[in-house]
């Protein structure tokens, strides 16, 4: 039976490829490399597709056409091209494509990240923006962030044994981000073993990888039934881990009732569900889908960006020194950093921007979806195309940035460029209707944790390692993390030994 389906799939794919070649001659598609029958261009992708697509775009242009099986893909690799797709024609490309990962990992596209564009999605985004990610809600968790960061600094001090022992900063930052996320989303800290013996970050990163890796089931629907790569099996396993854990969290909240304290995100969503005030049908599936959005967005993205920022500062001691000098001027050495200090830390802000430029949170922004045939930049864009915006390529485009491969925070001096989606040379959070609604929370977490670490500690690479020897290899997923954990020797540098923030 399996062989029969493979033959049928091959015949159908071959027919589709011939039809595609005929249509390509009739309409002006964007340029692209020559592909193979049936496969199209799938064979050109390696374990780091964002880098492969960047290299191809240098040869074929900033709007490039690739065919993955049945699916047409438009690869966007410049600021001007991104503006066309994310601003000028934003509404046409505001949806998300159907794919197996969103089916299994987001409760059939019920979440904000993968939800299809329409009335439901617009109402869900409105709810999240007003109720879950408002400045009032973000600020209500400020005392928690202060307390967790104080514990984190003490833990780093203890592990470093007075600045003589290397510390796994990747693991510690990941643990801090998980604790902060749990407090905001669930109202309490959970241990790694509570979700799975592999821990929060492992399970979330597994989900991120499965959502980003090329999946034959998405490009050849009949092959999805056979699951030749085993990805569907892995997706179902991860989805069950999340579903079981989130059900337990919801049950805990139902049993606890109104606790009369700062409401966490689950409290807020459960109140909305029980009140019936939502403008759409709102059930436990929606609550779980948004819980996963909030947990993954506030944990994995922040932790990865902090790792890359610290890695770049360790590679560039002069930049590290400038950040510390600014912190000494604004904060002083008698206390730790507070959130109210962040707006005054201009050079730190440049460091974070430069980190986002070289290491955008999601180098291939979540794919957009063409809801109708249209023409963009003189090219025909077929309906049902996937629009893949390569934020990494845009951030390293020599037409927008001088010395694009170098870490130079000073490049932002006098340049009115931010990361909020208005300047298309730098769009780590996307732009337009599908821009990340959690941007403000993410910026606070990244800037605060980087500032606190660099202010409280002198950081040095272990074992006499030279800055240029630091391994910067990437591990691909929706969020691209360091392939190897970042190790450093931290030595406490403040002029007090208080164990809590700003007594």
Describe this structure in a few short sentences.
The protein is an alpha+beta fold and about 500 residues long.
Report on this structure:
With 503 residues, the protein is an alpha+beta fold. The protein has one domain: Cytochrome p450, CATH 1.10.630.10. 51% of the residues lie in helices and 8% in strands. It has helices spanning 2-26, 49-60, 79-88, 100-105, 119-132, 135-140, 142-160, 169-186, 192-195, 200-212, 216-219, 221-226, 231-256, 265-275, 284-315, 317-330, 346-358, 391-395, 439-456; strands at residues 63-68, 71-76, 167-168, 368-369, 374-376, 379-381, 386-389, 457-460, 474-475, 481-482, 487-492. A hairpin with a 2-residue loop joins strand 1 and strand 2 (71-76). The relative contact order is 0.16. Residues 499-503 have low confidence and may be disordered.
Note the main attributes of this structure.
alpha+beta, 19 helices, 3-stranded antiparallel beta sheet, 4-stranded mixed beta sheet, Cytochrome p450, 51% helix, single chain, Cyt_P450_sf, Cyt_P450_CS
Largest sheet report: 4 strands, mixed
Distance between the termini: 71 Å
Oligomer: single chain
Proportion of strand residues: 5-15%
Structural class by sheet pairing and helices = alpha+beta
Average pLDDT for all residues: 90
Q: Give the name of the CATH superfamily.
A: Cytochrome P450
* CATH C-level name: Mainly Alpha
Helix segment count?
A: 19
Q: How many extended strands?
A: 11
Helix and strand arrangement:
Blueprint: H1 2-26, H2 49-60, E1 63-68, E2 71-76, H3 79-88, H4 100-105, H5 119-132, H6 135-140, H7 142-160, E3 167-168, H8 169-186, H9 192-195, H10 200-212, H11 216-219, H12 221-226, H13 231-256, H14 265-275, H15 284-315, H16 317-330, H17 346-358, E4 368-369, E5 374-376, E6 379-381, E7 386-389, H18 391-395, H19 439-456, E8 457-460, E9 474-475, E10 481-482, E11 487-492
Parallel strand pairs: 2-7
Antiparallel strand pairs: 1-2, 3-11, 4-7, 5-6, 8-11, 9-10
């Amino acid at each position: 039976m399996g062989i029969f389906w493979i033959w049928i799939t091959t015949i159908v794919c071959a027919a589709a490829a011939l039809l595609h070649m005929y249509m390509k001659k009739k309409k002006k598609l964007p340029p692209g490399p020559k592909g193979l029958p049936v496969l199209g261009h799938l064979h050109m992708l390696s374990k780091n597709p964002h880098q492969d697509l960047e290299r191809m775009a240098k040869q074929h242009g900033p709007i490039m056409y690739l065919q993955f099986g049945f699916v047409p893909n438009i690869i966007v690799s410049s600021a001007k091209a991104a503006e066309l797709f994310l601003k000028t024609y934003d509404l046409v490309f505001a949806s998300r494509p159907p794919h197996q990962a969103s089916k299994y990992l987001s409760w059939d596209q019920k979440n904000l990240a993968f939800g299809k564009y329409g009335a439901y999605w617009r109402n869900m985004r409105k709810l999240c923006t007003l109720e879950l990610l408002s400045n009032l809600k973000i600020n209500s968790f400020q005392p928690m962030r202060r307390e967790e960061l104080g514990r984190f600094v003490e833990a780093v001090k203890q592990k470093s044994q007075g600045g003589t022992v290397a510390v796994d900063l990747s693991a510690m930052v990941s643990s801090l981000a998980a604790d902060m996320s749990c407090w905001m989303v669930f109202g309490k800290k959970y241990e790694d073993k509570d979700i799975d013996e592999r821990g929060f970050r492992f399970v979330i990163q597994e989900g991120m990888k499965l959502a980003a890796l090329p999946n034959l089931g998405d490009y050849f629907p009949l092959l999805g039934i056979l699951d030749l790569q085993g990805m569907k099996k892995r997706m179902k396993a991860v989805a069950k881990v999340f579903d079981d854990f989130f059900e337990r969290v919801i049950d805990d909240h139902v049993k606890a009732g109104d606790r009369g304290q700062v409401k966490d995100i689950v409290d807020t969503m459960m109140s909305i569900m029980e009140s019936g005030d939502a403008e759409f049908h709102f059930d436990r599936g929606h609550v779980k889908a948004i819980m996963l959005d909030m947990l993954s967005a506030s944990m994995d993205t922040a932790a990865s960006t902090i790792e890359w920022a610290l890695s770049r500062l360790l590679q560039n001691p002069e930049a590290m020194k400038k950040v510390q000098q600014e912190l000494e001027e604004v904060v002083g050495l008698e206390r730790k950093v507070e959130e109210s200090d962040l707006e005054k830390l201009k050079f730190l802000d440049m460091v974070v921007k430069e980190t986002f430029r070289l290491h955008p949170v999601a180098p291939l922004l979540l794919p957009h979806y063409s809801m109708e045939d249209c023409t963009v930049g003189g090219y025909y864009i077929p309906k049902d195309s996937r629009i893949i915006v390569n934020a990494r390529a845009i951030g390293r485009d020599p037409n927008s940035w001088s010395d694009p491969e170098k870490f130079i925070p000073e490049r932002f001096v006098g340049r009115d460029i931010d990361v909020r989606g208005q300047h298309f040379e730098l769009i780590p959070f996307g732009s337009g209707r599908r821009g990340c609604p959690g941007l403000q929370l993410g910026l606070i977490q990244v800037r605060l944790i980087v500032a606190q670490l660099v202010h409280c500690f002198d950081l040095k690479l272990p074992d006499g390692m030279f800055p240029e020897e630091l391994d910067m290899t990437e591990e691909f997923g929706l969020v691209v993390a360091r392939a190897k954990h970042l190790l450093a020797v931290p030595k406490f540098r403040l002029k007090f030994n208080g164990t809590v923030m700003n007594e």
